[in-house]
Design goal:
This protein is an alpha/beta fold and 519 residues long. Helix content is 40%, strand content 11%. The relative contact order is 0.13.
């Protein structure tokens, strides 16, 4: 039998500096370095261009073709992070970041993530880490009470909450539960008859979930919205759509109502929509991914009035609740519907605790088996700041957005396109010498028939937005509602202050001056 080939057996230094990959003292040394590195990053983040300025494929030119054979020091690696990775980041934690929706961080959220990652438990059932399961159940009840959710959504009222990764997962899980509950009544062979309802403003996660759940593409309804309803779903429009489907022999299944749509933070009227849906035994999921956090403030709670008649409700704590990605909070009235649709019980996972039916096994509340200890970071956020400070943080962002809205209103070259409801302002620059018809407030063609100048206005704002973002001074994104291209200014980065909002408006004005001079 031939001898095994061992490279550089004599005097090799393959293990030099890496005696054990989890050595406590080396962890302490490198961990201090990493914290210092990130603290310096947060201190200096506003000095970087907010949107990355690199070209596609930049990193492959910087890095070797293969992994190193021998170990490299953390000092060398962090130097490369600074030189090669940071230039390719869009800085979501920058105080000049106003794009998409926020991914707000905090010291507590970060430290909670450290604990979760450090413990590195895989809490798929109670037995695999009892604290992970029980803490999750407790903090979901805490947050549910902060939101004044009805008791039927809490563990104390036979409902319950679970932490998913994202809203996409939450919608898929609830849609799957609704699908199976209905098919158990009408027969699985009738899956082609099931219909899912949203609007032309609903997040694309609903359509993806419907595809994955096996809903026929022709049975996905994006009910049109109008400016007259501020792009919220009309209960009458929903009912007429449902009735047409029933007449065609189809089976209404699932409605996703939104509180704070991505395009414009529009709010669907939860109560009236639930009344319509309940007439036809439709599962109602309320997607409050962005705006749900604000509903811990009494002045915003009314936006989820009627939630007591919904079947499930979710918000993303990693958007606007100072808890790092990922952390989607999902509450359901009927946990058994999730469990029946998503559970598995292989021999190797059987245990006395599960068989006692006295514990929660969260593996049966989600798509995947493995799951992270997400509740740790949410627990730290709730305890470190308390309800009073969390409300204060949210209100400060709303106030900054209102200030920005005031700046827009003072400059007659601009207009607000849709009402500012939370902490996002949707605005646009008007073309020079525009006729009154082009003003959104008097917009006569909101159903897709554009005034001849609308295309011109849209192109003007595309140029303006790209100019702003290319400068690196601020980052914003866009959407289109009612044929109107608008710029979205979303306040929510934890480091943002009034001075950053003032600076952002000056950047907008300066770039508008330059664009209008050549338009």
């Amino acid at each position: 039998m031939g001898s095994l080939h061992v490279e550089n057996l004599a005097g090799n230094n393959i293990s030099k500096g890496v005696e054990n990959p989890l050595d406590p003292e080396e962890f302490r040394r490198q961990g201090h370095m990493m914290i210092d590195f990130l603290a310096d990053y947060y201190r200096d983040v506003e000095k970087y261009p907010v949107r990355s300025q690199v070209e596609p494929g930049y990193l492959r030119k910087e890095l070797p073709d293969s992994a190193p054979y021998n170990p490299e020091s953390i000092e060398t690696i962090l130097e490369d992070v600074h030189k090669q990775i940071i230039p390719g980041l869009t800085h979501w934690q920058s105080p000049n970041y106003f794009a998409y929706f926020p991914s707000s961080g905090s010291v507590a959220g970060f430290l909670g993530e450290m604990l979760s990652t450090g413990f590195n438990v895989v809490g798929f059932n109670w037995m695999s880490s009892p604290a992970a399961t029980e803490l999750e159940s407790i903090v979901m009840d805490w947050l549910g009470k902060m939101l004044q959710l009805p008791k039927s959504f809490l563990f104390s009222g036979n409902g319950g909450g679970v932490l998913q990764g994202t809203t996409c997962e939450a919608i898929l899980c609830t849609l799957t539960a609704a699908r199976d509950r209905m098919l158990n009544k009408i027969g699985r062979e009738n899956i082609c008859k099931l219909v899912v309802y949203g609007t032309d403003q609903t997040h694309c996660a609903l359509q993806k979930a419907a595809q994955i759940a096996g809903i026929h593409p022709k049975n996905f309804r994006a009910v049109p919205t109008t400016k007259s309803n501020n792009y919220g779903l009309s209960p009458d429009a929903l009912r007429s759509t449902i009735l047409a489907d029933i007449e065609a022999g189809l089976v209404p299944l699932f409605l996703c109502a939104t509180v704070g749509t991505t395009s414009s933070t529009a709010v669907d009227p939860i109560g009236p929509l639930c009344e319509v849906a309940n007439d036809y035994s439709i599962w109602v999921h309320v997607d409050a991914a962005y705006a749900g956090s604000a509903c811990i403030c009494p002045e915003f709670r009314h936006f989820i009035d009627g939630v007591e008649n919904a079947d499930s409700f979710s918000l993303n704590a990693h958007k606007w609740f100072f808890t790092t990605l990922d952390c989607c909070c999902l509450w359901v009235k009927e946990p058994s519907a999730l469990i029946k649709a998503l559970s598995t019980n292989p021999e190797y996972l059987k245990n006395k605790a599960t068989e006692s039916q006295q514990v929660v096994d969260y593996k049966d509340w989600q798509i995947a088996l493995s799951r992270r200890f997400r509740s740790m970071k949410l627990w730290l956020v709730l305890r470190s700041y308390g309800v009073a400070n969390l409300r204060k943080f949210l209100r400060s962002h709303v106030k900054m957005a209102k200030n920005f809205e005031g700046f827009v209103n003072l400059d007659k070259r601009f207009e607000i396109v849709v009402p500012t409801t939370f902490a996002m302002v949707c605005f646009r620059l008007l073309p020079p010498a525009a006729s009154p018809l082009i003003k959104t407030n008097g917009y006569q063609n909101g159903n897709g028939v554009y005034h001849k100048d609308e295309t011109r206005a849209n192109e003007l704002n595309r140029r303006l937005l790209e100019s702003i973002n290319a400068s690196g001074s601020a980052y914003m994104t866009h959407s289109v509602v009612g044929g109107v291209y608008m710029i979205r200014f979303a306040v929510g980065a934890s480091l943002s202050e009034d001075r950053h909002v003032i600076l952002a408006w000056k950047v907008v004005q300066e770039h508008a001056d330059a664009i209008l001079a050549t338009f």
